[in-house]
Amino acid sequence: MRLVVQKYGGTSVGTPERIRSVARRLIETQRNSCQVVVVISAMAGVTDNLLTLAHEISRQPTQRELDILLSTGEHAAAALIAMAVNALGGRGISLTGAQAGILTDRSHTKARIANVSPKQIHELLEDGYIVVVAGFQGQTPEGETTTLGRGGSDLTAIALAGALNADACQIFTDVDGVFTCDPRIVKEAEKVDEMAYDELLEMAGSGAKVMQSRAVEFAKKFGVEFEVRSSFKTGAGTVTREETPSMEDVVVRGISLDRHQAKLSIAGVPDQPGIAARIFSDIGAAHIIVDMIVQNASIEGTTDISFTIHEDELENARKILMPAVGRLGAKQLNTTSGVAKLSVVGIGMRSHSGVAARLFECLGRNSINIQLVSTSEIKIAVIVDEKEAQRAAQLVHAEFGLGRLLPAASATHPLARSTTDS
Ligand code: ASP
Ligand code: MG
Q1: 153-163 vs 213-222: helix axis angle to the nearest 10?
Q2: pLDDT value, residue 410
Q3: DSSP state of 419
Q4: Is the pLDDT of residue 411 over 60?
């Protein structure tokens, strides 16, 4: 018999009606000769509400108690799903993360999975149960409850699929899959049928959030193939797996846009060892997340260093850098908000040359100025003016021949690819 691990996000179990429809789908899957393990997120909004409550009670809630509190959202949803399965005449049973054998390290609120011992799950499957696991949580070797970071139910599903050696891992969410670009930005965007782990990771790092990044990293490490698909429709979604040679035939898999970025440039920085370290350790100490970093070749002993951060952090970063600029003997600090990062992603870039030239040429021809560039082996990212960002994405999407088939479903999909499901 096939063993299937499914995961449903918060929106997919957001109302009693949706809980019933998930239960129906589980029973149906089991009837098609499958053993079914299902991972459930808290109902939409529940985790946020619990967090708000905790911060109303305490400015710095105890991390241990926070984990006990947050894990209840998934307990409730899992129990409700199991009840719904039973009410429909099926055989469902819910398990907490600990009961499901998810063992983690001791870092509360962002624990890492150390080991999965799914003995009890196997026994329950043998007895014919649909096993409903509360996502996003596990326990330490001492039996303390931990949670796996926001979006952690994805990680629970991937880890269980790996440990159970499942035949399929399906992540059901509120979008049809991963798109070549957010359809709200580019209406021609279409669903991608398959992609490599690294492509999904790069797209996620560029603002296209369909899956928790840690879950994708885990899947990559253990070779767990998974499919992201809609819980509201039938039909295939996007399969993410190890790369195959044919995946390289596609030069660009997708495009993503990160809005609300700010660019900071420190001009005339003395070109000496240790200077960059000092700049970025000050920024890091303030927990500001730095994205692109570009340093120029030095001219006459000085260089320019530019980097980008989220717009909301700009004031904070300025306060830190203004005095530092003087101390380091740099000339000046220039900052620009209202910029966006456009990223073009695809493992095909490794074997195709001229991708950067084609991207730059497309933007240049359309008078869109490039303010910064950074690349990885499978990504080229440029910073452009926020006002030009959508037009740039549309032009580049067309330039690389994405979304040529324009399926009506994805073009009109209201929820696009930046899912709100969790
Ligand atoms: N409920 C948790 C969150 O909102 C975990 C999850 O949904 O995956 O982050
Ligand atoms: Mg999620």
Answers
A1: 10
A2: 36
A3: -
A4: no
Evaluate the CA torsion angle 385, 389, 391, 396 in order and state its sign.
Answer: positive
Q: Which residue has the tokens 């440990």?
A: 163
Residue nearest to atom 8 of ligand 1 (CA): 151
The tens digit of pLDDT for each residue in 20-45 reads: 999 999 999 999 999 999 999 999 99
Question: Which string of DSSP letters, residue by residue, matches 202-222?
Answer: HHHHTT--SS-HHHHHHHHHH
Q: Whose CA is nearest to atom 1 of ligand 1?
A: 42
pTM of the model: 0.88
Amino acid at 130: I
List helix spans (H) across 88-227. 119-126, 153-163, 197-205, 213-222
Q: How confident is the model at residue 403 (pLDDT cuts 50, 70, 90)?
A: confident
Q: How far apart are CA 153 and CA 77, in angstroms?
A: 12
Query: What does the buried/exposed string (b/e) look like for 41-79 if buried means 16 or more CB atoms within 10 Å of the residue's CB?
Result: bbbbebbeebbeebeeeeeebeeeebbebbbbbbbbbbb
Pocket mutation for ligand 1, best pick of 74, 146, 216 (most atoms within 8 Å of C-beta): 74
Q: Tell me: pLDDT of 412 over 70.
A: no
